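Structure ticket #2291
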Amino acid sequence: HRFSQPMEEGAQLEDADIQAHEQEIRDETEAAPLVGPIEPLDGLRAQYASNPGFLPKIAGLGRRFAALRRTRPDGNCFYRAYIYGIFEALVGKAAPLAAFTERAKASLDFCLGAGYERVALEDFHEEFLSCLERLSAAGASKATVDEILAECDGYLICWARCLTSAYLKVHAEEYVAFLSSHSSIVEFCAQEVDPMQKDADHLQIVALSSYFGVPVCVVYLDRSDGDQAAEHMFQESGKADCPFETVHLLYRPGHYDIIYPL
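Resolution: structure written out below.
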């Protein structure tokens, strides 16, 4: 017993250090803007200056892309970046906005068909539709998208996660074969899609882009050989005449930012 007290104190100090570090990370994350301003790719070069394995790919990005917007690295970044990219492209474009709004209007019934209860979802759905109305209002601009995000970020992300989950459940037979560490699509959604702050991966991107019908091109920044970053296009199958612009996202392990082609 003589030795137990110092050990317990040491363990408590270690726990306190861990908690302080975790709080520091949370504070740093929450201080980051939800979506930042457009910035040149030079910031990436500076960020990875001490990690030269990334620099050839960053140089390659400069030949294909002009700029990027950073998003808050809080586990919701894919949903936030994708929605922001969609909204930004729809401002001032009456026909695509009308087409997207029709899909959005039908999304509540789609989720109800996947087993959700109306009372749990209708507020999120109504908020999503009201955001689209603001985009279609006279005088709406890119600044309107920033205002919407500042006011409605949580609602938009919750709704996007619900839609993603519903799409995977409705099409479970198509996607269950892609699971590696979950026994069913329902379990996958409960653990990886529905909770906030859970990172999105391939299946979530397929699901949400398939429902919305807005193509998304994910550009992978990594240390693999060569100077050209791999790109993967997620697009609704059989839709050659898509009315929507492609949203481009830059992926680094665990994080998505928006990137803009030249």
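Closing remark: Residues 142-170 form the longest helix (29 residues).
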